[in-house]
Design brief:
heterodimer, A: about 270 residues, alpha/beta, Rossmann fold, 9-stranded mixed beta sheet, two-stranded antiparallel sheet, 6 helices, about 25% helix, B: about 325 residues, 5-stranded parallel beta sheet, binds flavin-adenine dinucleotide
Chain lengths: ~270, ~325
């Protein structure tokens, strides 16, 4: 079993964000591994660990794949210290400002040459929150799309996978043959903290940094200049104005009702 | 003639209210063509419900494959209609499913995609509210047919009546779209209250409820509101996770948001700060939620909410 996990480095969700010329200023904020991608790594680990039990060198492996700036290696290290085996980082100045179509193209081309049985993703990144990359990957690769998974069951010998897709619409039980693209929701598991041993081991693991041409995509196909969609402008929303604050002196509820009725919302 | 294609969302034979919203946005851009993808024999019933919106044409494609294979099969059908009808834009409502259909159609048709727009101008400039509502971004698609998913409740529209032409179309579902089988579907149980992300009013409870949501719920019911919760409340198991508002929960922008016993952590604000009007009820005068509230009541929610509810009910019945 060969698994790829797509991981994105995102700005720390606590950090104050800035926009420069319609793009997120990624250099100016602390960057971390996208929350949900840890759940994807954890789920992949739970599949390969029992399979590798007892063998000296693991034959069932997890490769992290990330598209991002050179400093994305920080986020990748965290995934390696959880137990992923190696990583590929596609980093190229031509990729700055890529939209979802470009990102999915670069990731799909990278995955194609890897001989993977499964690709795991998070369901969404905490910065752009589009929840579209996994579906785009399945479409580009021509693989089964098993997304928003709250439960994943892989039948290795049968070459099959089953998931429960959990969304607001309800729960759908779905199945497909491998290869497949799976995205996971946070309900699926509890990601482990990297152990001291894991952190030490991660320092010896390989991160292959590739350029666009290494993965067979030309710069003219992706990046800001040829983006499918473009940002015209971005502006901080003016802060909300502080309203009236009243101490409840026994009539707080009446005041509340009065305010609502005056606004004629009901 | 310029036309805009909208994908009609429906479940159990009933259209979603987002269909009317998409039609209202579509009308800004051109004549609206509505696409109904349905089980064999059920398209006409759905099409009939669309006559309260300003729609020029309804396309019905029926196939049993939609329910069996889900999103990839639906995307195949949408992409083939996109190719044969060359609309100016494709509008889909934002949801897990809507965004994934849009994603696949974008790849198939080599078109740009903008997700979760809160506004759309006649020249197809989309407005997105990002980073928990702290920024507004304007963007547009420059390659292919603009595919835009629109956040529910982003527009208020009035029902009219129209007399659209109805056309049945056949669609080809490819083998790749049949790789996945849906073996069982358990629809989410809907309570009597409005859908959280679609509601006009949301009343939320936090740790301050101390596990007792009865006051929050009955106040919400007096307003016909949806009920939300902070993560402290959902993590404690006091309220279902599906009702969590915030960065790792739902994003809501109702006309009115009432936060009860919620401190106003940045991750909670991320899900509600674009609400039109915000009211906070909190015991602690220093609670950060008061910084964004149009009205703040410093008090015990167990006293304030029942009194407010009684006053609202008295007004309604009086
Ligand atoms: C605020 C904001 C709004 C944006 N709006 C749009 C828009 O409307 N249209 C558009 O085309 N682009 C948009 N972009 C650009 C887009 O976010 C990027 O192209 C991004 O890489 C893909 O979207 P996402 O992060 O939302 O991915 P999602 O689809 O939310 O990510 C799901 C999963 O895909 C994987 N993944 C995503 N990105 C990467 C990566 N770079 N490397 C490895 N794995 C990855 C991860 O497993 C992740 O958990 C926007 C960017 C920002 C910051
Ligand atoms: C990565 C991450 C993601 C997160 N995502 C979310 C998210 O999506 N949504 C979310 O909500 N949180 C989220 N959080 C958690 C967030 O940081 C806060 O911990 C949480 O919002 C606190 O919930 P609370 O306001 O109900 O509780 P508290 O902060 O404990 O506040 C309770 C408030 O109730 C008041 N109170 C107590 N008793 C009464 C009473 N009888 N009457 C009136 N007021 C009373 C108190 O004065 C206090 O202000 C996230 C955190 C992290 C780290």
């Amino acid at each position: 079993m060969k698994i790829a996990v797509c991981v994105k480095q995102v700005p720390d969700s606590w950090a104050e964000k800035k926009m420069i010329n319609g793009l997120l200023d990624r250099a100016g904020v602390d960057a971390v591994l996208n929350d949900l991608d840890e759940y994807a790594i954890e789920e992949a680990l739970r599949i390969v660990e029992p399979l590798n039990e007892g063998s000296e060198t693991p034959t069932h492996t997890i490769t992290l794949i990330s598209m991002g700036p050179d400093r994305a290696t920080e986020a990748i290290r965290k995934g390696l210290s959880m137990g992923a085996h190696d990583a590929t980082l596609i980093s190229d100045s031509a990729l700055a400002g890529s939209d979802a179509l470009a990102t999915s193209k670069v990731l799909a081309e990278t995955i194609k040459s890897g001989g993977y049985d499964l690709v795991f993703c998070g369901t969404e990144s905490t910065d752009a929150r589009m929840s579209v990359i996994p579906a785009m990957l399945a479409e580009r690769l021509g693989w089964a799309q098993l997304t928003f998974a709250g439960v994943v069951k892989v039948d290795v010998s049968g070459n099959k996978v089953e998931i429960d897709r959990m969304t607001d619409a309800g729960v759908e039980s779905m199945s497909a043959n491998l290869p497949a693209v799976i995205s996971v929701i946070e309900k699926i598991n509890e990601p482990r903290y990297p152990s001291f041993k894991g952190i030490m081991a991660s320092k010896k693991k390989t991160i292959n940094t590739k350029s666009l041409s290494d993965v067979g995509v030309s710069a003219s196909e992706v990046g800001l200049a040829t983006a499918w969609s473009v940002v015209d402008d971005a502006a901080a929303r003016p802060p909300r104005e502080k309203g009236e604050k009243v101490e409840d002196a026994g009539n707080g509820g009446d005041k509340l009702a009065e305010f609502i009725l005056e606004k004629r919302i009901v | 003639m310029s036309n805009v294609l909208i994908l009609v969302d429906h479940a159990s034979g009933n259209i979603s209210k987002t269909a009317g919203e998409l039609a209202a946005f579509g009308k800004r851009i051109g004549g609206v063509t509505a696409l109904v993808l349905a089980e064999p024999g059920s398209g006409a019933v759905i099409a009939d419900q669309l006559k309260t919106f300003e729609i020029e044409k309804i396309l019905i494609a029926e196939s049993a494959e939609f329910a069996i294979h889900g999103i990839p099969a639906i995307a195949d059908a949408v992409a083939s209609v996109l190719a044969s009808h060359s609309p100016k834009a494709l509008l889909i409502s934002t949801s897990a499913r809507g965004k994934e259909i849009a994603a696949r159609v974008a790849v198939k048709s080599n078109s740009g995609l903008i997700t979760d727009a809160i506004d759309l101008s006649e020249n197809l400039i989309a407005t997105q509210s990002i980073f928990g509502g702290s920024f507004n971004v304007h963007s547009h698609v420059k390659t292919g047919t603009p595919i835009i998913t629109i956040r529910p409740s982003a527009i208020d529209f009035t029902a009219t009546s129209s007399n659209p032409t109805i056309e049945n179309v056949t669609v080809e579902i490819s083998d790749v779209a049949k790789l996945v089988s849906i073996n069982n579907m358990q629809p989410a149980v809907k309570g009597g209250r409005p859908e959280l992300t679609e509601a006009k009013i949301v009343v939320s409870g936090g740790r301050g409820t101390n596990g007792d949501f009865s006051r929050v719920e009955s106040f919400a019911d007096s307003l016909g509101a949806a009920v939300g919760a902070s993560r402290a409340a959902t993590d404690a198991g006091w309220y279902p996770h599906t009702h969590q508002v915030g960065q790792t929960g739902k994003t809501v922008s109702p006309q009115l948001y009432v936060a009860c016993g919620i401190s106003g952590a940045i991750q909670h604000r991320a899900g509600m700060q674009t609400s039109k009007t915000i009211i906070a009820v909190n015991k602690d005068p220093e609670a950060p939620i008061f910084d964004l509230a149009d009205l703040g009541i410093v008090g015990d929610l167990f006293a304030v909410l029942p009194q407010a509810e009684a006053a609202i009910n008295a007004k309604k019945h009086g």
